[in-house]
Amino acid sequence: MTDHQVVTRFAPSPTGFLHIGGARTALFNWLYARGRGGRFLLRIEDTDRARSTPEATQAIRDGLAWLGLDHDGDAVSQADRAPRHAEIAHQMLAAGTAFKCFATQEEIAAFREAAKAEGRSSLYRSPWRDADPADHPDAPFVVRLKAPIEGETVIADRVQGDVTMRNDQLDDMVILRSDGTPTYMLAVVVDDHDMGVTHVIRGDDHLVNAARQMLVYRAMGWDVPVWAHIPLIHGPDGKKLSKRHGALGVEEYRAMGYPVEGLRNYLTRLGWSHGDDEVFTTEQALEWFDLDGIGKAPARFDFKKLENVSGQHIAMAEDAALLHEIEGFLAATGAPDLTPAQRSGLTDALYCLKDRAKTIPQLLEKGHFVLASRPLEPDDAARKALDSVSRGILRELTPHLQTANWQRNDLEEAVGAVAEAHDTKLGKLAGPLRAALAGRSVSPSVFDMMLVIGREETLARLADATE
Prior knowledge:
With 467 residues, the protein is mainly alpha-helical. Helix content is 49%, strand content 10%. It has a 3-stranded parallel beta sheet with strand order 1-2-3, with helices on one face. A 3-stranded antiparallel beta sheet has the order 4-5-8. Strands 6-7 form a two-stranded antiparallel sheet.
């Protein structure tokens, strides 16, 4: 198989949001296809009509769009393809690779109970498997696949290695229900075949399904795709990731203010590795990603690590891209848009905000000094720093700043001289100065703030604080 033929797919059930585990599966499929000039397709497995809503489907599309995982062509609806799935079941009936089973639910339950009582396998074997069609009653039936009874089915998996299932452990699974609707097991195979999927990369909770799905491929004489079953994501305690570990949906991570590049990097690294590389760009991930780098053990989700990776991506980001991300974050969380003045102030300030912020809210908190307008409302810590002694020193500093050259060295000199005159350290004066300029006790350096907001605004804020 040549590289340009790679076709992968992401096939979520629309249950309300894009789960973080699903997001990683989509990302692995996207990276594998895009890195090889292949196609990445989206299929919505919406056959469960009760749970599948347009809103849920939209939430999945929104999550993929925010993550930058674009798919080729239109999304396929599995429910819309039910007639095609049924057509294949009828082809299998005609070919003798499937059969009509007239057993009732009661008969199957009675068989299972008797088998359990006698300590036999409760895998249902239908008496109709080899029945003469002349003996078929005029009654409802399901269509079952004729599974091989002897031998083995080997799943050649690119992550798990060869996984062997004994065929006597595989039942004659139902592919068409008595109401004529196809089962999930049939629908998945028909869709993957018709969509030309060459590589099925999905959670290892589907590993057993692969053995049963291979029987459909074989019955139809179709090429079996390359399987890659990836371990699930666990919480820090080693248990399957769930609500109690924290956020589950991608939109929650967006609302917490993780930059998309950081989240994408973290998810790529979750269960896959390339040497010791922890922080990398999407371009590098596209170049490096392969199935051999996926580990067999479940990956553990670690918020500290995510924060660390996110912080490095904020620090590495181009200003324009970061500003775009900030505006997207504000829109997604329902916060007001930036005013033109705030936008230009933030643009000027980004150089001194990026280095230690791990999330966008942290960056905005550090940038409070350019986002707020006079008179600033100081927080409690800032108010404490502005006692009468400090205010007196700031009054004294004002004329020095009125005449200083507005450059870092000159500003440092002016503030240093006033600190020296009061026999105090520069750091001691930085607290009240920070409180006056930012209204906060945490901010960039006071000299960065002065340079960003300029002489006029600096003096006006000092005047407000010392009144």
